[in-house]
Amino acid sequence: MLDIVWRAVAIGIGATVFMDIWAIILNKAIGHPLPNWGMVGRWVRHLPEKVFHDDIGKAAPYAHEKALGWAFHYLVGILYGVILVVLAGAGWLAAPTFLPAFILGIVTVGAGWFLLAPGMGAGWAASKVPNPMKVRALNLVAHTVFALGMFSTALLIR
């Protein structure tokens, strides 16, 4: 049992690292801004009082919001790794396939579109940003990269 748990955690961490490397590649290649984990941390800090903000930048700052945002980012990645292993089963760990990771990766876009984006003031599925279709496409690609990270990590640790 402990073996399955550590593998699930490793899969979540590995996938999150893949996603972070992808963000760095986009930043270096086309100047796409890196994620602002500080604002995510501010959102997390304010969750007990309010989930949806008009503009998270106007919410009261928190001294450790960047660290909280990074921690939250990795905790969510770990949670998704655990969910994948629970849904795909222990047999998947012995012979990982891409499809279950891909399906979960695409499904998890919903959390960003319908919780995080409106929570931070970007609207449902980033509808309030200047180019929502670009953001949505980048979200789908990033979560596909996350799925590749889950699959690749599972292959590495099998």
Rounded mean pLDDT score: 97
Strand content: under 5%
- Strand tally: 0
**How many alpha or pi helices?**
7
Sum up the overall morphology in one term: globular
The Rg value, from CA coordinates, equals 16 Å
Spatial gap, N to C terminus: 15 Å
**Count of the domains:** 1
**Largest sheet geometry:** none
Uncertain parts = none
* Helix content class: over 70%
Brief digest:
This protein is mostly helical and 158 residues long. Helices cover 73% and strands 0% of the residues. It has one domain (2-157).
Written overview of the protein:
Helix 1 crosses helix 7 (132-157) and helix 2 (37-46) packs across helix 3. The protein has helices spanning 2-30, 37-46, 65-88, 90-94, 98-107, 109-120, 132-157. With 158 residues, the chain is an all-alpha fold. It has one domain (2-157). The protein is globular, with a radius of gyration of 16 Å. The chain is 73% helix and 0% strand. The chain has seven helices and no strands. The two termini are 15 Å apart. The mean pLDDT is 97.
Architecture blueprint of SSEs:
Layout: H1 2-30, H2 37-46, H3 65-88, H4 90-94, H5 98-107, H6 109-120, H7 132-157
Helix pairs in contact: 1-3, 1-7, 2-3, 3-5, 5-7
Could you list some keywords that capture this structure?
158 residues, mainly alpha
